[in-house]
Design a protein that fits this description.
Layout (H helix, E strand, L loop, with lengths): L44 H27 L2 H21 L5 H26 L2 H26 L1
Length: 154
């Protein structure tokens, strides 16, 4: 003999604990005629760009020092130092809300420059290491800075 299944429904909404609930997302603003598309459309991009700037600058100076120690290439150490200096300037400018857009633009410009340089080197040498790896890192940084530039202008 089986007992009947009794279900009850309540009209009260389900309240989740604060640790499980996600924060409310901001409303999506759509402008008529806007053709801009961001690579990364999330609110965390603004907090992510200084860390990307610092990490990318450290990788550039480390790679330049490694290439100089391995082959004595002065161009690599100068390129690494100049890229690190540009990323340091971008990081410094991103710390203030008034100059954040300028910092994003400096980061975008220098990431674009280094992506171009590593793309040309990859095309000429056809070696994936180090040019291909640095091209991928430069394109990743370029995407983050591009998204941050678009986010700051909205």
């Amino acid at each position: 003999m089986t007992s009947p299944v009794v279900t009850t429904t309540t009209s009260r909404p389900l309240h989740l604990p604060a640790a499980i609930r996600s924060p409310p997302s901001p409303p999506l603003v759509v402008r008529a005629g806007s053709r801009r598309r961001a690579v990364l459309r999330c609110a965390a991009v603004s907090e992510l760009t200084p860390a990307v700037s610092a990490a990318y600058g450290a990788l550039l100076v480390g790679g330049g020092a490694f290439a100089y120690a391995r082959s004595g290439s002065k161009g690599s150490i100068y390129g690494g130092l100049s890229g690190s200096a540009l990323m340091g300037i971008a990081y410094y400018l991103m710390q203030s809300p008034e100059t954040k857009a300028l910092g994003d633009a400096v980061g975008f410009g220098s990431a674009f420059l280094f992506a171009s340089v590593f793309g040309i080197r990859l095309y000429n040498t056809r070696k994936l290491v180090p040019s291909g790896l640095l091209l991928v890192l430069s394109l990743g940084a370029l995407g983050v800075f591009y998204s941050a530039c678009l986010r700051d202008k909205v």
